[in-house]
Every structure is written in C-alpha cells, then in structure tokens.
Amino acid sequence: MRLITLALAALLLLIQYPLWLGKGGWLRVADLESQVAVAQKKNDELKSRNAKLDSEVRDLKDGTGAVEERARFELSMIKQNEIYIQILGKGQAQPQPQAAAATPNP
C-alpha cells in the first residue's frame, strides 16, 4: 500500500511539473502577461506622443498662429509697432539693454 501511495505521489508531481514550470506553465504565462502589459503601456505613451506631434505638424503646415506663437515664445520676436514689456520678479537680474534699444540722438 505504501508503494502505491509513493508511486501516485510521484506521478502527481510529474504531472504538476509542466503545469508550473513547463513551456506553457502558469509562471511563464504570468511573466509573459507582465511583459505584454509593459509593452502596451509604452505603446500608449508613444501613440499619445505621436498624436501630439502630428497635431503640431498640422498646425505648423496649415495655420500661421502656431508659427507666430513659436516665434514669440522661443525666439522672443515681436510684431511691428508692438511694445515688449518684461516683468521681473524679486531676485532676478535686470537685463542689459541691447544696442538697437539705445536712445536715439536728438
């Protein structure tokens, strides 16, 4: 009787091995599912970045508003007959006047 019990226990362990540690086992499936979740998260981030870049490209191609906004904020450009005012906070250094902004001679 004892021999049969040991044989059945050994067979049970042999059957369980592929279920847990085999190629299609639960541990492998859980690992692959976590890898898929990470890849999907990265894909979602890249899709949102691509959508943002696509809309920015369309704005730059179609309208002048986006080009004007970039010129103002990135290149500090102003329109003709427009006054530029900069407000400094406490502790900020006062910018040096440019040569073009010098007072004209009377």
Per DSSP E runs of 2 or more residues, the count of β-strands stands at 0
Terminal CA distance: 120 Å
What helical percentage do the residues reach?
A: 55-70%
Structural shape? rod-shaped
Order of helices and strands: HHH
Rounded average pLDDT: 81
**Largest sheet entry:** none
- The radius of gyration over CA amounts to 34 Å
What fraction strand?
under 5%
Structure description:
With 106 residues, this protein is mainly alpha-helical. The protein has a domain at 26-76. 64% of the residues lie in helices and 0% in strands. It has three helices and no strands. The chain has helices at residues 2-21, 26-62, 65-75. The termini are far apart. 0% of the residues are buried. Mean pLDDT is 81; it is low at 100-106.
Give a short synopsis of this structure:
Its main location: membrane. This protein is an all-alpha fold and 106 residues long. It has helices at 2-21, 26-62, 65-75.
Secondary-structure blueprint of this entry?
Elements: H1 2-21, H2 26-62, H3 65-75
Protein name: Cell division protein FtsB
Pfam family, one: DivIC
Function: Essential cell division protein. May link together the upstream cell division proteins, which are predominantly cytoplasmic, with the downstream cell division proteins, which are predominantly periplasmic.
